[in-house]
Amino acid sequence: MSQTTSVQFDSVSRVFPHCRAVDNVSASFEGGQIHAILGENGAGKSTLMKLLFGLLQPTEGQIRIRGEVQHWKSAGDAIGAGLGMVQQHFALVDSLSVIDNIMLGYESTSALGVLNRGEAIRNLEKNRQSAALQLDWHQRVEELSVGEKQKVEILKLIARKSQILVLDEPTAVLSPKEIDGLFAILKSLRDQGRTVFVITHKLGEVFDHCDTWFVLRAGKKTGQGSIATARLDDIVRAMVGTDVPPLDSRRPAVTGESRLTFSNVSILEAAHPVRDLSFELKAGEVLGVAGVDGAGQSEIVEALLGLRSFAGEIEVLNCILKSSPTPNESAVQLTRLRELGLALVGEDRHQQSLWLDESVEINAAIGFEEQNQLVKAGWIQRGAWREAVLRWLNSFDVRFNSLELPVARLSGGNQQKLIFARELLGRAVRLLVVHQPTRGVDFAAIRLIHERIIAERDRGTAVVVISSELDELMALSDRILVLCAGRATGHFYREPTSAPFDREKIGVAMTDAAASRSTQQERRA
Amino acid sequence: MRFFSFYVTAIAVALGFILALLLTAFLGENPLDVAWVLIRGSVGSSTAFGYSLFYATPLIFTGLSVAWALKAGLFNIGAEGQMTVGGISMAIVGILLQDLSAWLAWPLALSAGFMAGAFWAWLVAWFKVNRGVHEVLGSILLNFVSYGLAGLFILNVFRNTESANPETLEIGSGFHLSTLEWLGGTSPLNIAFFFALAFAALIDLLIRRSKIGLHLSWTGGSPEFARRSGLSISKQTIGAMMISGGLAGLAGASVILGYMHKAREGFAGGAGFVGIAVALLGRGNAWGVVAAAVLFGCLQKGSLDLDIDTENISRDLAVVIQALIVIAVAARPVFERPIRNWVDRRNKAVN
């Protein structure tokens, strides 16, 4: 294991017209280790990595790789110098095989121009070192799971002889078991002497698997150290700037009438079909829905909004939904549900929950203007609107410079808080549906959003939280329903102990082998 | 932000003018002379200015029409056709009810024009919502149908056989809109110009202050969010297109009720298409549309004198200028960024 300095930043700054994205950062990273790069959204992590890759040039300072000052001008130079990156969104050609994807752009051919797949495979077999990196080389990429696709990306870097690997939020789309598998691979790469950077915000993984930690806040380095001697509090303080109190211990759920019922619901005409799903949600409890992305969560949300046709029966706030509504019927039905107290926080907030070009003021109340009497006889009541919006935004601690600014200019956390404020305040909410409550949201905002979700539950609201972050679900839920490939594969109840849910069992249910195999067969049939 | 946007548009307009005037230099004219002819011809006398406003009147209506549809994310390229059917309907009402007095005739004719235009646009919306026909395709095809329909009424059903021109019989005198001598001298400028301003005020109020306007621009600005909040996109589409079509349907009022007092073939004269440029230049703001329409009206009038007062260029220069302005406005991003950076730097220096 080499202990030489692999990457060194010397007083590196990168200035954009509006901000210093990276501000006078000096740090050195040892070779042959796994380094966790931590920080809230917008802290400058991606900018720092782009500087490392030569995708951006530093305004001040320099970057040294193995002691040599780096002068390259493009990612191509960086790859040539032994750097490799796995983006959050994979760059794979779905219709090609695993080996073709790995060779793409670096094809070795025989004299006649025929692809030399055999030789490429032999080289890989020799270099991959870890049994965990075994794949069927000739399978098409579209048939692979998310975790396997990630392995293909890593194999691409190995084939290109990358010595320094950067992975951007690699675990966001993985189940707990796949996460362990990924880090096993990364550790084997480390043991071969490679240097690995993992950009993440999940502290659990950092403590379990990484060697060092490094935190950026607002472009400045706020902490760095070895995991062996690290304390959780120190890292959190470096990320947030203050101490974060732990979530208050919750009182047991007091449940009431039924607010949402799925009875044998199937949603078949969908990208991710749902089959034979039944559950009931009562007033005053939080139901968590776990599962990796694309297990049918979006379809379930659209069905309960009445925007999708389904088989079986769905009852929302004592209304039985039409099973195949026309667009106009859906609109009338959904308007009725919203009047009855349905609140919704969408999965993709830019598309589904915000009108990005419009002002903060409009976004903070639109859709509920009639219920909140901000519109009278068809005319907007400007004074009442502004006054209500200011009250709501303050109550959710939304930070903004001006009410007139487009909502797109707010940070992710403030946007999400604004959406919660709009959906929850000013009217009687009886059912709250939250899809990905804290995706791309900073630490402080996560804390506030979690508190408000629990407060809603204590007020007697029925809450559905759908999230791919298991930690989040275990913190919030009274019950957890696990989905895998469109089927319910587990149902877990909160235990009144220090570990209320069995993480391992939930993880197994999320990747239920039987369920995924049967749907694959159906798809082929 | 709003003021910034106004300045950038103003710069784009100026750029278009300057480029066009430089072109005249290549044709052997003095650009300053050409500019002077344009200015004198459009605002040099009350009659000249009256003509400019007269030309601007239909452009205000069609500009508002296109802008309203754009708010909902719809590109109504069929204002020309909607104007045509609206104008024909006004003429038909006026021909059939010869003896109606003005206080009944005016609202009746305007309603007929609005409803005919709205119906024409409703067809487009219906095909889009129920059959998935894109509104650009639907509206441009219906333009051709409207020309045929207009020809049928003008050349056959209501043709004035005494006249050598392809035109209809005269409308009743109660339908004649009053001309405005105090403002427009001997030009045919008539009260329809003020109707147009009233509609601009109404549209401005609706867009900024009403639930209808808010939901219209919500549908256009963030359709998936609107749909998930219980808005019916199909209803919004139909409503937006009908109002858009109705506005275009009114565009013929100034020419038919206020000037010709009959319908002549080709009375729309491309105002529906120029309305698209007017809406773009007005940037979806009702008063911006009015300003852009008056600018284009002035251009149209001013360029008429070019035929007489210059050697080498004709009134077609107006079209060249219009085109260059539209291109400059469309190319806003090219010079918007440097200006924004400059403003930011200056602000920073002041702070």
Verbal overview:
The complex is a heterodimer of chains A (525) and B (351). Chain A has 525 residues and is of the alpha/beta class. Chain A has 2 domains: 236 residues, Rossmann fold, CATH 3.40.50; 168 residues, Rossmann fold. In chain A, the strands form 5 sheets. Chain A has a 6-stranded mixed beta sheet, with helices on both faces. Chain A has a 6-stranded mixed beta sheet with strand order 16-19-20-13-21-22, with helices on both faces. In chain A, strands 2-1-4-5 form a 4-stranded antiparallel beta sheet, covered by helices on one side. The longest helix of chain A is centred in the middle third of the chain and has 16 residues. Helices cover 76% and strands 0% of the residues of chain B. In chain B, helix 13 packs across helix 14. The longest helix of chain B has 30 residues. The model of chain B has no long low-confidence stretch (mean pLDDT 90). The chains are: A alpha/beta (525), B mainly alpha (351). Chains A and B meet through helix 10, helix 11 and strand 18 of A and helix 9, helix 10 and helix 11 of B.
Features:
heterodimer, A: 525 residues, alpha/beta, Rossmann fold, 2 domains, 18 helices, 34% helix, disordered C terminus, B: 351 residues, globular
Question: What's the gist of this structure?
Answer:
The complex is a heterodimer of chains A (525) and B (351). By secondary structure, chain A is of the alpha/beta class. In chain A, 34% of the residues lie in helices and 24% in strands.
What is the structural class of chain A?
alpha/beta
Low-confidence stretches of chain B: none
Strand portion of chain A: 15-25%
Beta fraction of chain B = under 5%
Radius of gyration of chain A: 25 Å
Which spans of chain A have pLDDT < 50 for at least 5 consecutive residues?
514-525
How many separate structural domains of chain A? Answer: 2
The class by helix and strand makeup of chain B works out as mainly alpha
Shape type of chain A: globular
Instruction: Tell me the series of helices and strands of chain B, N- to C-terminal.
Output: HHHHHHHHHHHHHHHHH
